Give the backbone structure.
Amino acid sequence: MPEAAEPQNDFSLDPSIPAGAASLESILCTEELRQRPSRRPDHAQENAALVALASALAESRHAILEVLADTILRVTGADSSGLSLLTSDGATPNDEGQRFYWPAIKGMWSEQVGGVTPRNFAPSGEVLDRNCTLLFRHFERRYLYLLRFSPAAEECLLVPFYVRGKAVGTIWAMMHSDRRKFDSEDQRLMSVLGQFASLAYQTMGMIDDFKAQIKAREEAESRLRELTRVEVAVILDGLEAQVRTTEEFHRVVVETASDTVVSIDHGGYILFANRAATRTFGYEPSELIGQPLTVLMPEYLRDLHKAGLKRYQETSHRHINWQGTELIALRKNGEEFPVEVSFGEINSDGSRVFTGFIRDISERKRAEEKLRESELNLRQMTETIPEMLWGATPDGSVDYCNTRVLDYTGLSQREIQGAGWMKTIHPDDAENVEQAWARSVESGDPFYFEFRGRRASDGKYRWCVSRALPLRTSAGGVLRWHGTVVDFHDRRQAQEDLRNAQAELAHVNRVMTMGELTASIAHEVNQPLASIVASGDSCTAWLAHEPPNLDKARAAACRIIQAATQASETVQRLRALFKKTTSITTSVDVNIAIEDTVSLVRHEAQRNKVVLRTELEPGVPSVRGDRVQLQQVILNLTMNGIESVARLDHEPRWVVIRSANSNTGEILISVEDTGLGIEGEQADRLFAPFFTTKPQGIGMGLPICRSIIEAHGGRLWAAKNQPRGAVFHFAVPVTAPGT
Amino acid sequence: MSDPDCIVFVIDDDPLVRDSVADLLDSAGFTVRTFGSAADFLEGEHPDLPACLILDVELPGLGGLDLQAELTKSGADVPIVFLTGRGDIPMSVRAMKAGAVEFLTKPFRKPELLDAVTEALRRDREGRLQRSETSELKKRFGTLTPRERQVMALVVTGLLNKQIAGELGTTEETIKVHRGRVMSKMGAGSLAELVRMAEKLKISS
């Protein structure tokens, strides 16, 4: 591209619109293009124009822009035409530039070529922002800096100009009088020409790039040739000459090398040493030249070296490996250090030159040493920590157990490996452990299993838990397994004791609650008894009549049976609650459990003038748990509710027990009352042991209820009831399908 | 022991107990009416016959003791035999003080129940008799003139005619006439009988 003209009219990039500038809308008349009568397309002229553009391809990119401006002027019959392209330096196209420059202008404005306008406040800028053709009328009324150009533009039609799909500027045509007005045919022609020119411009760009690449490659090749030549010279020429002629090569390759490079002659005297020698050995290169190589070796290696060099020259027998041999070297300060040496030999005119690359490997050695130490540490740790550790290969075969495991099991490392550990597992657990381990090995899931393992010291089986996690490669495959074994027998025992103690406590609580219910229970039992005794008496009386009234006697006997059945049911319900049971897990129908409980407290409610109601959702799924314990919770909560209401004498007086299926896998049970309710401070302490608001309470009811519900995998909580009283909710999971 | 002209009301919410008690009384020859609640009883018909209540203490809604209080308040003086499922001493004391005939704890035997019912009916009959005698005397007393009532009040205190005449500021002769009319209107054969009548009528000077 020819040198662009010095920018004559560069304008500030100030984005603010100058005072007195006309609004954009007032100078835009793009819409009129469509309404103006349009010329018929002149295809012959259009073709001629495209041919002109195509022939410009043979020239430069700039020529295309010139031809384009010229063509536009011709086909539109405009007074002036040209291009505005984005630039950052005011002279070369750059689609990220913040200014437009005018690389080519034809017609009345041709002298303005090289002019520059700001990206953010120019007609072309507006075209790029909107990405469409715009027609301006007297645009200098807004873009005041255009006032200085003469003649003024009556109309200016601007069309976006794209390169590689990116708008990089505009092409434009201008009328300086109202001699003719632009129409939509002008717009069409400019778009077509612009597209074609854009393609041509791109093609030219590619050709230019290609040329530049060829040139760069030729340069690179010649440089390479030069370097090769220099390298050869280094090896073959005499030292002094080499240093001079291959200065660049040395600087680039040898002097900047981090390894020490030393060349010796056949007698073992140093011909050359690079700057790294100073860093590694403490000698300036100049100090070394002419010295025997042995100065760089500890005393005890020198004779070995000399003999080796001599033997090699005589027999070509190498006494050490020439590539990457680890040796001990000697610094100027007498310090010995490990090095890795590689060297080669060059025969030149019958004289031998050996060049060696010497690398200080102290750091590497230290790192290796550290690694060995840390490995040792790790091994010591696995052997000394007071836990049982084991490892296994990806196929599940145990290949390591630490001493703790061996001590515990009494097996040797050899005996326990593979599947040898299996014989320490309790026969009842062995199969399950084996299956669980096989599952983990297959799936790669963490292993966790509780089992009884034999402790060698007393030969007893104790509860242990083993966990293992897979160590994975970055690709996700299992590299190996690492596991632990913990003997938690004592803890488990303690937990069991605790569970028993809790069950005991729960039983005491039941008995106490039942104690509070004695009067109601007595009523429950005496009611059918009264019926039995009375009916027995009447039965006897009917039989004693003259003649005996058998129908009435029979009816009385039926009542006896009915009442006795009722009594027996009541007694059974009571016995279940009084019984001391260990937890029995079954499927419990919550609604039946509620109804049974309610029948026990119904009279208690009546006695206290409390209305006791149930609102049970029919057909709620069963829950898994201990029926007695769940009834105990319902009983406790209901009794609490009744007592709370009983202590007041206001209306309403009710306790409602509800059941509902939450449809999230839980059954919700709530006990609502209209009693005293829960005050803020109490809410926090409700479930704390020994907290009670009752004169006779010991404050264990709610903590026991909560522990029962939590043992069922559920939750128990309290809230305020509206408009008064309290509501206790608990949620227990429904029986899982398949269990 | 039974009396077809009596009626026993059994009020108990437990149908088995209610029917058993009713049947037992039936077998002993009593006429029985049963009710499931106090409210049902209050709404029901009560023939004007000697009667008694067999009342469960633990009734839902209006309890047995509440009903007792209610009846006393309205002046329906029917004897009550209480039944209860739990022997609760304070409760029975309260019931007895309020005039209950008996307080039976379930389960009870036939003799206990029949004795209690018989006693209750006896009391009711007696009460009714008393109530009807008194009302006859009241009727007779109503036929006396004010002066005759004054004279009768003074006669039954044991004053002589002369003393009464002095008291009322009239002559002994006049008092004698009044006294004769009083005796004949009240149907009293002797002074002693008139005194008893005055006691029943709670007349004092």
Remarks:
- The CA atoms of residues 347 and 654 of chain A lie 114 Å apart.
- Chain A touches chain B through 31 residues (CB under 8 Å).
